[in-house]
Design goal:
alpha+beta, OB fold (Dihydrolipoamide Acetyltransferase, E2P), BirA Bifunctional Protein, domain 2, 2 domains, nine-stranded mixed sheet, five-stranded mixed beta barrel, about 25% strand
């Protein structure tokens, strides 16, 4: 028997001791009257009034000293010391505590707040009972879980033992709350659009496919947050909409990319990409101040201040400046050769992939904050063209060497949209799994008329950048491969 098995057997034995003593080791409810945070915040008044409180939580540490014992109790709101005295509890309850309770167990304690000889705020227990008996050890707080794979598999323990990681997810909740409140205060309506689609419109990515048994057809998990659906709402007469939801892309993993993630997309009728740039700048600054209390960040080796002037970067000119290649006039052979010279790994040899590859090489040098503009038509199949040019009315916020959002003046010309979908269809047929699936019903909608519209989206990668963490670390439960014995 392994050491872990021996510990488990010992805890099962202690569970049986509790049962024999008449305690249910897995209670259905607690009678607590105060959270630990409430006790601590009103401590002086509770002591002065000699108030009896009932608190509950997980035992994080337990120290025994003859006829007394101290436990550190944690209930998710705060951590507090509990004092157990044999003379106060009585011999039976005190010995049961010693014989059957371990760190990791959940207990309920009734007692009075007091100050220990060492000046600590504590509760002197008058009685206690078990709420949940843990039959596996939790790691010590000092050592925690060092292996990342084990941390993610046992995220409940990782978060329990690391208050700073709990705080990370409180900040993430505040991040989305700040986003939502900013938009709703400006008249945007929050909506919900399908996550199962017949075609995965609105982005270029390899989708996840599943089968709809009732309709007997294949469908896809969405890769965007309702882009083509929200634009239908513009045609329906809604002037401003947004959605915050999950997207799914069947692609590789990296510190900046995962297959499942949360994104925001908003759509604003009668506005263009220039209006969008202004509101996005305001939104990012609002998030920074509301969530972090600052606009200055250091991440990925860059330091930037969102309160600075956001300068504009011309897509074609920046690539030309850094690589010597004009992606609008160079041949695919020339672009491929230059990418090879620069040591850039890339998939696919079509013009769109090569253009995007060269840009991704260049963006790594840019601290920001900046807006990338004047994208070639080929990389913006849903954006309006700048009249008389081969570039589109598209923008992307750039910070710390990466794009953290994308927006554009939405294409509302059905003939133009149909032609661009045909280009994407040819890319799909040539084997480009990330090309955009044509949605001909969307084209039909455009034929009914859609007003000038600005659309924009960003994902939780922005949050990961602001806290300078890999994207995986900022997800509560990232996908893991099954663990094999």
């Amino acid at each position: 028997m392994s050491a872990l098995d021996e510990i488990r057997q010992d805890r099962l034995r202690k569970r049986d001791i509790l049962v024999a003593a008449g305690m249910n080791p897995y209670a259905a409810a607690s009678e607590r009257t105060h959270s630990l945070e409430t006790v601590l915040s009103g401590f002086d008044t509770l002591v002065d009034d000699d108030t009896t409180v009932t608190v509950a939580g997980r035992v994080m540490a337990l120290r025994r000293h003859g006829g007394s014992a101290f436990a550190d109790l944690y209930d998710g709101t705060a951590r507090m010391q509990i004092f157990f005295a044999r003379d106060e509890l009585g011999l039976k309850l005190f010995e049961l505590l010693n014989d059957a309770i371990d760190p990791g167990d959940f207990i309920e304690v009734t007692g009075v707040p007091f100050v220990t000889k060492r000046g600590a705020e504590a509760v002197a227990a008058q009685t206690w009972h078990v709420l949940t008996k843990a039959i596996q050890n939790i790691p010590t707080e000092h050592f925690g879980i060092k292996d990342d794979d084990e941390r993610y598999r046992n995220r409940h323990l990782d978060l329990l033992l690391n208050p700073e990681r709990q705080e990370l997810f409180r900040k993430k909740a505040a991040f989305w709350h700040a986003t939502r409140s900013f938009l709703t205060e400006r008249g945007f309506l929050e909506v919900e659009t399908p996550t199962l689609e017949v075609t995965t419109g609105g982005a270029e990515a390899r989708p996840f496919r599943t089968h709809h048994h009732d309709f007997d057809m294949d469908v896809y998990l969405r890769i965007s947050i309702g882009e083509l659906w929200q634009k239908r709402l513009m045609a329906a007469g809604f002037p401003k909409t947004f959605e915050i939801g999950r997207a799914y892309r069947n692609e590789g993993s990296s510190p900046e990319h995962l297959q499942e993630f949360t994104n925001l997309e908003f759509y604003w009728a009668y506005a263009d990409y220039r209006a969008g740039m202004q509101v996005v700048q305001e939104l990012y600054r609002h998030i920074a101040q509301e969530v972090f209390g600052t606009t200055t960040f250091t991440t990925r080796g860059f330091t930037f201040d969102l309160a600075d002037e956001w300068y504009e970067i011309d897509y074609v000119e920046e690539i030309k400046r850094q690589t010597g290649i004009n992606v609008t006039t160079a041949t695919e052979v020339e672009m491929s050769a230059r990418a090879a010279q620069l040591g850039i790994e890339f998939d696919g040899e079509n013009r769109e992939r090569l253009t995007d590859t060269l840009w991704k090489y260049c963006r790594k040098q840019i601290a920001g904050p900046a807006f990338l503009i004047n994208h070639p038509l080929i990389v913006g199949p849903l954006a309006k063209q700048v009249p008389g040019t081969q570039v589109v009315q598209m923008f992307q916020p750039i910070i710390a060497g990466s794009e953290v959002g994308r927006g554009y003046s939405e294409l509302n010309d059905p003939i133009d949209q149909a032609e661009r979908f045909k280009v994407q269809q040819k890319l799909l047929e040539s084997g480009d799994e990330e090309a955009m699936m044509p949605d001909w019903e969307f084209v039909e909608m455009l034929e009914h008329g859609m007003p000038p519209t600005c659309g924009f989206g960003f994902g939780e990668r922005l949050f990961a950048f602001l806290v300078d963490k890999p994207l995986r670390e900022t997800q509560l439960f990232p996908l893991m491969k099954p663990k094999h014995d």
